[in-house]
Amino acid sequence: MDLAGNVNRVKQRIEAACARCQRDPASVTLLAVTKGQPPDLVDQAAQYGLMLLGENKVQEAKAKIPLCSDRLRWHMIGHLQTNKVRDAVDLFEMIQSVDSLHLAEEINKRAEQAGKIMPILLEANIVGEANKFGYKPKQLLADVGVINSLPRLELRGLMSIPPWTPIPERVRPVFQKLRELKAECEQSLNAPLPCLSMGMSGDFEVAIEEGATLVRIGTALFGERPKPRSLG
Hints:
The protein is of the alpha/beta class. It has one domain: Alanine racemase (TIM Barrel, Alpha-Beta Barrel), CATH 3.20.20.10. It is 41% helix and 16% strand. It has 9 helices and 8 strands. The model has no long low-confidence stretch (mean pLDDT 95).
């Protein structure tokens, strides 16, 4: 695997997408998804400037993060169960996958116990896929004010995982709807939400064209995910 080449190609694609929609490439943050990747590869990625990383499972992150450079920054991007919130608050600088008021309240409680403020994103299930987590848009709008008022949370924006398709253009309406939902939340709160986390390896250029500020890239950087292996 040519990791250095992959990093350069992804960055060039980000720059090209930004040029098409007249955006500054600095307005898009690249998050490397390291699910299933060993610590030595994570540290290698850091040498090529990938300092912001995303993990899908608390258990894997808990085993992996202590074995990686302490200069790295980590986001939780997968579904979070309430019984894993304490560890998530300790391990991550942001939780992107808040999908219920109950979960938000648990994060707030654990953040208070830890004496920290926890940045979060609300995860929206824009098209209502039954096999995916995330807020339905109407419920998200109903809860956003309450969540924003929780004292130990810092609401930064929204995230979403669109339906998979081999044709990226097909998910453009999903990205448009997430951007519009963020605008509705900002209007409701009368406050800006700077982060719009959307777009992955197969569709991140379309997401950037529709306003993504953070793209979550795994396969385009690391290739197909390896089979699970021991971290020990």
